[in-house]
Specification:
alpha/beta; 571 residues; 5-stranded antiparallel sheet; 5-stranded parallel sheet; 18 strands
């Protein structure tokens, strides 16, 4: 029997060494790979948990609670820095359910542009005889209104047309005047505005279609706003038409009253005494006011509202605080009454005093001397009046302290309840309408910030006339209508821009609040017959809202300068 040849000693030894080393190397590699994989899985798990639970606030696109969280983050130390900007109110970021307030008929439908009323069959059989109007257009013909609707839908694309009146004849035979109600598409409220314009109307000889050749400017169709003359039975003639100054029917500033003693006694009220917020900046005032209103809604109580507002010196020409301003000068009281339970402080105090005088049993009152008593502790209180008192030093006597801490998770500020004044918005609408809703805007911040070189070292140079011309030429097309929203006091400061654009400034429209204006007359009646000054906060409010309606908007701290809005190193 032959034995197999002996194996190579060197080769066999090497094989044995490799075989004995293999398990140790493989185990080490597996240990390292398992550790790395476990670390990776753990990191992915942590990232997933953070991604799911973290929700960054987006206050302008999200809900009111998101807006509240945003400002809470910005203001952690219960102090406010003066800011001349306008705080966004409800109509700027909240989509309103329009159907809750008024029906809307969208006459902007694309069918107006593409189809309309097509009566070609009638025209073919009768020629243009059906519209043989001679030298005077029959403005009451339905096809005239359709032609005007199609013209408006094509020219004013940023406008939502809600309803039209019947066209009437203008001053010439080929003119028709028509009025309509509308809303700018960028305004997210139910409010409606009115315009009336004059149109050149003709009949095309080939197609026999009614066409609009041209339209005059804002409020040019004066015949459409005039009331019809009344028939005089004695003379058998109509009385002459008289132009009447129309008052906006959608403004109702009447004070909310409680009514009888029984109604007063059945109510449940939240009353805030005046605190350290008085005469602070408007943004501070709104932050506190909405906190109080939010607590009233949380407690299911009627909020006792002081309509008197102290305007901080930063908004007044004198630079001094001015008391006795009315809430209704700046904000929409009609809308506030619709969405929140409020009562005027003066009427409330009279009813309270009257009840205590005529009844042995006084009104139950719970006095709350400190903001540290939370809304949650007052939730089950049965007192007719919960009276919060703010007698401590600043900042403990600020209203908004009530909504801090744990209360912030329970109290939601009702931003949807606060809209800007309809009277001021009418001025905004008229300025935008005068520019035919086709304009660009630039916001130029000057004033004290431009003078403060420590916090804004480049702002003055970056907003100089030459710098503005150079920067805007690369953003806005030449000879566009350019609205300049600014706090620059010198009217001629922007004259160099007039060589490149059709410049519009707020002071170009000062007749809208002059002593012959509708705004002047209505605010004077609210101000007990005293003329009201168009103050700086109103100017900023109007400037801001007009800018929102521009096709292209250029901002100072985002487009014109590298300086930070709140000063150096705050971007």
């Amino acid at each position: 029997m032959k034995l197999p040849p002996p194996a190579n000693t060197a080769g066999g030894g090497a094989t044995i060494l490799l075989d004995s080393a293999d398990p140790i190397g493989q185990s080490l590699i597996k240990l390292i790979s398992n550790f790395c994989f476990s670390f990776f899985v753990f990191a992915v798990l942590i990232f997933t948990v953070v991604a799911i639970t973290y929700q960054p606030p987006d206050p302008w696109l999200s809900s009111a609670p998101a807006l509240t969280r945003h400002f809470t983050d910005l203001i952690p130390n219960s102090t406010f820095s003066e800011d001349s900007s306008v705080l966004n109110t409800g109509e700027d970021f909240t989509t309103i359910a329009v159907s809750e307030f008024a029906p809307v008929v969208d006459v902007n439908a694309s069918s107006l542009l593409n189809s309309g009323i097509n009566d070609d069959d009638n025209n073919k059989s009768a020629g243009c005889g059906v519209r043989d109007w001679g030298n005077v257009v029959n403005c009451s013909d339905p096809t005239v209104l359709v032609a005007i609707q199609r013209f408006n839908a094509r020219v004013f694309k940023s406008i939502l047309f809600l309803e039209y009146g019947t066209p009437v004849n203008g001053s010439k035979g080929d003119e028709c005047d028509v009025a309509w109600r509308f809303r700018n598409k960028r305004e997210k409220s139910w409010r409606r505005y009115r315009d009336f314009r004059r149109f050149k109307v003709r009949v095309d000889e080939e197609s026999c279609e009614v066409k609009v050749g041209d339209a005059s400017g804002w409020h040019s169709g004066v015949n459409a706003r005039r009331p019809r003359g009344r028939w005089n039975a004695t003379t058998g003639m109509r009385s002459p038409k008289v132009a009447v100054k129309e008052k906006d029917s959608e403004i109702n500033d009447t004070i909310v009253t409680i009514g009888s003693d029984a109604a007063f006694r059945k109510g449940r009220y939240l009353y805030y005494s005046r605190g350290g917020d008085y005469c602070k900046g408007m943004n501070h005032y709104l932050w506190s006011f909405l906190c109080a209103l939010g607590e009233a809604q949380f407690l299911n109580r009627t909020f006792v509202m002081d309509l008197s507002v102290c305007l901080a010196g930063q908004y007044t020409p004198s630079g001094k605080d001015e008391e006795g301003k009315d809430f209704r000068f700046y904000f929409d009281f009609e809308h506030l009454k619709k969405v929140a339970s409020i009562v005027d402080e003066g009427d409330f105090l009279r009813d309270w005093k009257k009840w205590d005088k005529n009844h042995k049993r006084k009104v139950p009152v719970r006095k709350v001397p400190t903001y540290k008593t939370t809304p949650m502790q007052l939730k089950k209180d049965k007192s007719t009046i919960v009276w919060r008192q703010f007698d401590g030093p600043e900042p403990d006597n600020y209203w908004y302290r009530v909504c801090e801490g744990k209360a912030a998770t329970y109290i939601q500020r009702p931003w949807h309840a606060l809209w800007k004044s309809k009277r001021l918005m009418n001025i905004v609408t008229e300025i935008s309408g005068k520019m035919d809703w086709d304009f660009d805007a630039v916001h130029v911040v000057r004033g004290e910030k431009a003078q403060n070189k420590e916090l804004w070292p480049h702002l003055d140079d970056d907003t100089s006339p030459d710098a503005l011309v150079a920067k805007l030429q690369g953003i806005i097309l030449p000879w566009r209508k350019l609205y300049i929203a600014t706090n620059e006091p010198f009217y001629n400061y922007f004259d160099k821009l007039r060589s490149h654009y059709k410049v519009h400034l707020l002071d170009d429209y000062n007749y809208l609040w002059s002593n012959t204006s509708e705004w002047y007359n209505e605010t004077r009646s609210l101000n007990n017959g005293r003329p009201l000054e168009f103050d700086n906060y109103m100017r900023v409010e109007v400037d801001t809202e007009v800018s929102y309606r521009a096709k292209t908007r250029v901002e100072t701290f985002y487009n014109l300068t590298k300086d930070c809005k709140d000063g150096i190193n705050t971007c």
